[in-house]
Amino acid sequence: MSIEAGSKLEGKVTGITHFGAFVELPGGSTGLVHISEVADNYVKDINEFLKVGDEVTVKVVNVEKDGKIGLSIRKAQDRPERSERPERPANSERPNRPYQQRSNRPQGGSRGGGQRQNQSRPSTLSFEDKMSRFLKDSEERISTLKRQTESKRGGRGARRG
């Protein structure tokens, strides 16, 4: 009997390891059910789900050229179809959240001189504009953090006592 990906077969658990279980398939070949393919939920200890000698229904996930057979118990189980997710509302239906300035940012008076520009921004910025604004804000925050850290250490080149 040839084993093809997608087929469901009955098999017998012949060995259990920390990473999965070996299942003997009809025709004498053996495949591996990885621990992530045992159940739909997280499996910490495979011994809680399987024992050597258990008869299981498996689905063939893949058959590699070197003869290794990947199996899944959870994909072999018949489950009712999941209902489709509801459609996301269009942009016009979503609440409009204008850009708001964060209150913990330093206001004006930074080393470069000059005041910050007006923070009211149009909501139709391109991706590139948003990225450049993010990079600018990020660099400002990093330089502020560095200045604060240096002042706590006594500046550069300070002797440690």
Write up this protein.
Residues 75-96, 127-153 have a biased composition (Basic and acidic residues). This is RNA binding protein. It comes from Halalkalibacter hemicellulosilyticusJCM 9152. Helices cover 17% and strands 20% of the residues. The protein has 161 residues and is of the alpha+beta class. Among the domains are: 8-72, OB fold (Dihydrolipoamide Acetyltransferase, E2P) (Beta Barrel); 123-153. The chain has a five-stranded mixed barrel with strand order 1-2-3-5-4. A hairpin with a 5-residue loop joins β2 and β3.
Features:
alpha+beta, structural constituent of ribosome, NA-bd_OB-fold, five-stranded mixed beta barrel, RNA binding protein, elongated, S1_domain, mRNA binding, OB fold (Dihydrolipoamide Acetyltransferase, E2P)
Describe the main β-sheet briefly: 5 strands, mixed, barrel
Structural class: alpha+beta
Number of beta-strand segments:
5
Query: How many DSSP H or I helices?
Result: 1
Multimerization state: single chain
The CATH H-level homologous superfamily of the domain at 8-72: Nucleic acid-binding proteins
Helix and strand element order: EEEEEH
What best-fitting shape do the alpha-carbon axes yield? elongated
What CATH first level of the domain at 8-72 would be assigned?
A: Mainly Beta
Mean pLDDT: 79
Considering DSSP H and I runs of 4 or more, what fraction of the residues is helical?
A: 10-25%
Strands side by side in the biggest sheet: 1-2-3-5-4
Low-confidence stretches: none
